[in-house]
Protein FAR1-RELATED SEQUENCE (Arachis hypogaea), 469 residues
Amino acid sequence: MIECLQICFGLTGEVGWTTNILEMFWLSTLLTKKKYNRPLVIFSGSNNHKQTTIFGFGLVLDETIASYTWLLKSLLEVMCQKMPSVVVTDGDEAMREAVRVVFPRATHRLCGEWSQAVEEFSLQDSLWANQVFGKKEMWANAYLRDKFCAGIRTTSRCEGINSVAKNFLQSKHGMLELVQNLELMVRDYRNNELLVQFRSIDSVPVMTTSLESLERCAASVYTHAIFGDVRNEIVGVASVNLVRLQRSLTTKIYTMDEYGQPGREIVVLYDKNMGRMKCGCNFWNKYGYPCKHMFFVMKHEHLPNIPNRLVLKRWTKNAKALEAYEEKIDVGADQACLLHHGALHSACHWLFFLGSQKYDLFQMAMKGIRNLCAHLEGYVATEDNVFSTKGDGVIRDPVAVRTKGAPKSRNCRGRKRRCTECRNPGHTKRRYPRKKTSHGMEMEDGCTTGFDSDALEEIKMFNHMEEVS
């Protein structure tokens, strides 16, 4: 049964997951109803610019536990057995069970805003609503407040991908056209990422806060999208008040509250020797960058830069630095080749983008590529069967779904259309060949509609007498 599920699986060359850049992904399904009527599963996630990125896609036989399990295991295999930390789905039971089996240690989060939905649609007495409320550990913020979800709580990004994918898919597309058009869709997402990455590296935001050294450090480390959120936390330092300061060995215990919320104390622990800082609000665990309470401690300690332990690499400009792709992973030959190909593919995207900006940069890039190719070809020439391929599998199109409507007529070649009145070929009911008699009457050739037998005999005899005379 598992063999027949292996219809299609495509990768986009995105290796961010394998380098711990993207710790979460979404599962979305889109039915290609017109031709195959098969679920198209798209694996997507969030990059260091908080943009949507696509890992891969698969076309499975049906929406069952076995299909989703095989697909997730295939994804895990090409990702070198590195599991995500968070998986967000729409609550499908088959998908939920497959995630539990394949990713047992991952946090499975369901999409939903419960309180607003219950009030808006009056679901207090609904059986379905009670069943969903029983899964509150998978979607309620109170249970997921210490889980890093990159600020994502719904599957709205999946719905956006589905909307975009429909513009690239048509009912007449076969398997080859399907994969090619999905690759075109992925290129749009990659191009958007390259543009914002270039802006983050090539431009510097204007410093607007009084803590200029900390703000400048954040601007040099984080991407523009994250820097905007970090700066809001730096501005929020003005609303924090110090209640008391205690010391325990090498750890300082800061107790503080916020303006307008007296009595609601928040504790921050800071160890200068170890460079550690932990806040009781769990903001860093949830969003991945320091909160205003941490920045208050930095201000009080006169720290010029953000401690390295508080900088999450997946939000930095160098999250996809080339050094991240050079780690050696003990995998098989096929998986290693796939991993290396994906790493080179991602690294070359940035090379292509930079080399296309100016003509002199273009010449420099072309010269470097030619020299590097000639250098690598020298090593390849000394080895045998380097470019040998394995032809151990053939992927064919799945069976197309039969469309509704009248079946096509068969064995009709050579048959002519007949008139529905006289059953003679060569004309139709609306196009009778008509003849005029000498009395100005019209007569239908070969048809007897509108005349009785006696009238026909008189007309024929009269016409015969006129022809003889």
About this structure: The longest strand covers residues 261-271. The mean pLDDT is 75. The two ends are 88 Å apart (CA to CA).
